[in-house]
Amino acid sequence: MNYFSSSFTLGILGGGQLGKMLLYETRKYDIKTNVLDPSAEAPCRIACDHFEQGDLMDFDTVYNFGKKADVLTFEIEGVNVEALEKLEQEGVTVYPSSETLRKIQDKGVQKQFYKEHKIPTSPFKRYKDKYNLNEAIVRKELHFPFVWKSCTGGYDGKGVSIIRDAEDVIPLAEGPCIAEKLIPFKNELAVIVSRNPSGDVRTYPVVEMEFHPEANQVEYVICPARIKPEVAEKARAVAKHVSETFEHVGLLAVELFQTEDDEILVNEVAPRPHNSGHYSIEASYTNQFEQHLRAILDLPLGKTDSKVGGIMVNLVGHEDHTGDVKYENIEKIMAMDGVTPHIYGKKQTRPFRKMGHVTIVDEDINQARKVAEEVKKTIRVVSE
Question: Mean pLDDT in the chain?
């Protein structure tokens, strides 16, 4: 099929920052794009060929949108899977597939998938609702501390909590959930795996993630991870095995724990471009967004090696500010060597909302980490 400068249409479900960065690559290759998003102010709106506003969880909206595309992909897991299944039955190519999304969309189903396929992960139990969770605590079948996760709807630190006592249970959401054993770990790592329909698989280097203690969001992504080569090799092998087991097409971001004794456990996955791969825009031979595009169109996959060390700093809304956004001191960080800011196009800031990211590149990853600290201290995402 001729994708370039033709009538071929790529449909993207979701118009947020991931879609916007994917559109950089479709523009590069002159690939026609349609985007669906519930927000009239979606960041993708300015860069796609055709934009539609609509509910991603509504069957008819997703189905009718998908019928106008030759290939359909998504930048967010919260989409109507039944509509994707119907589209596939009628000949629309959907990557990643509805089958892959079904296994991942519900964290309880995802964890059960790991268990059934002997993929290393932390011990867990599924609960129908908070009442059943409380019953298990009362019967002493579940012991503090543990990690609570909502089965659906979690993102950017929402839907995940460490439960240390009975009072921590009170504010939890009511729906289906899982309780995981709290694993003492050295590092949180991630590996992005790309796979095309022809079966070509490439893994990106292992990244190390540092989290904000209050927001439970990734604060820094460091590539390469500061770990032993044998641990990195093991992490890439586990991530590749997860990819092969899911048989996904596109990108799969595999989040991992490195335990105190250097075992690798799978935390969770995302079947799309991911926050842990943003460093690749400046630091890699093939950035994750171009690679996703190559994969879903069954084009040759690009080289995943890094050209230079890279660190990504998330730009999130200041905890005391809500309203029209202002990027305070952005000129100061742009004066620093190797620093590139990315602004997502969200006009309104609120506490801890992801508003952009900054990439810092340097041949010396430790020097890049020092600059990243300076960037974090300098720029502030505030309201006017």
Answer: 96
